[in-house]
Amino acid sequence: MKILITGGLGFIGLNLIQSLGSENEIVIFDKKSLGSVCEMYGYGNTRFLHKSHIRAAKGDICDEKLLFSILNATKFDCIIHLCAISSVAEAESNKDECNRVNVYGSEVLLQTLSKSISKNAGIIFTSSREVYGDTKGQMANENAVMNPINQYGKSKLKSQQIVENYAKTNHNPCIIFQLSNVYGGYFNKPSRVIPKFSAKLMAGQEICVYGGDQILDFVYIGDVISCIKKAIDVLSHTKLCERFILSSAKGVRLKDLVLLLENEWQTKAKVCYESRRNFEVENFIGDNTKAVKFFNMRFKDITQGLSLYVRLCQANRLVLKHTQKELVC
């Protein structure tokens, strides 16, 4: 399979590429350079990026000319579109850039795809549970009303609609994944809740929890990667356009997440509470029934996933620090 992965040097992309076999020809398109990512995470942890079946191109997702040169140089079988401003807080503080990357970037990618030799490629797009907004204690399935409350959710809904409309109009096989909060594995951002809480916990620093009574659904990175890999195979021989919620289907209160991390790390946390930020969803639990049946999946719950995450950090002697720089764990 010949696969293009936009945003391939991000959290999900790096975990996916590490898992894909050498029988695939992979091209990464990202605003970051390969060298900067290897330096950031350590050359030992990113050794897999230097294998002969992987190439990388640095660029902006809105650069139509550059995208065309890539899409027309190789006849790709599958396009995995991960590129996005993916932080809710970052999207809220820079709405124009969020729309430029998430919405306009998706438009440019697909318009360029339609003119290239890769125009018949299957498309995998990662959307978000944020498109549903606050589900008020109800479990959301793929038929639930989508009513995003923040800029990130709104941008993801628009880009999701762009992808769906393009795929149906041009008869491209397409799978859209609506991800709940993804955690675990390598390469996560330290600003994400689980790495951030873990770093503060192990450093003996105070954990600031905004709200605490929010009920959220967390999905383990390994399960997300399994579904993407299965989707690549499905799209290679099936014409379909479907959406799937990827979640654990179990909610956990944010303040209880601290207790779970205390238990896994065997360390007592110092916690302060602040008011919940108005752009944050108060309640979301995703119904993963459709994904479980279609991909024959068994999703890990939060206790299983946290145990794997902490053991991974400990086994690899990963140092957790809460800084502005992205870290390995």
UniProtKB/TrEMBL annotation:
It comes from the Bacteria. Residues 4-293 form the NAD(P)-binding domain. InterPro entries: NAD(P)-bd_dom, NAD(P)-bd_dom_sf. This is NAD-dependent epimerase/dehydratase family protein.
